[in-house]
Design goal:
Radius of gyration: 15 Å
Number of strands: 13
Strand content: 35-45%
Shape: flat
Oligomer: single chain
């Protein structure tokens, strides 16, 4: 009897990519668009791990103090996001537009913190969210 973990139509080769404080990414395995890709700007950390589908963790200009982890998904910080911790497993999570001090854990859904989202805690599984400040986290 075979055991199958995860089902996906996207094809990915396993890979790990890390970029810290704006450094060039360091990777193992597939670090192309079909694997894991991490990029950070100064003051941010990004780690992408691909096992079953492509994974991207990236921070943009004017983001600072963010920690991003993407496993078979996408985690991003941009547009003045500061001091956020973002985890995306099989989903998409991003913090933008002055979001500050938020903690987002997302499994299989999409979570975006933007605008005046400050110090919110969001846990999302399969598009069901539990948030500490729902006005600014969707």
């Amino acid at each position: 009897m075979a055991l199958s973990i995860g089902t996906s139509t996207a094809s990915a080769a396993p890979g790990i990519s890390f970029s810290g404080n704006g450094s060039d990414p360091v990777g193992i395995g597939d670090n192309t668009a079909t694997g894991a890709q991490a990029s950070s700007t100064k003051g941010n950390n990004a780690l992408a791990i691909s096992m079953f589908q492509p994974s991207v963790a990236s921070s943009g200009d004017n983001a600072n103090g963010n920690n991003l982890l993407a496993v078979d998904g996408s985690a991003g910080a941009g547009l003045n996001a500061k001091g956020n911790n973002v985890v995306a497993v099989g989903g998409v999570s991003e913090v933008t537009d002055d979001a500050e001090g938020n903690t987002i854990v997302n499994v299989g859904g999409k979570v975006t913190a933007s605008g005046n989202a400050t110090n919110a805690v969001s846990v999302s599984a399969c598009n069901t969210s539990f948030t500490g400040q729902a006005d600014h986290v969707t």
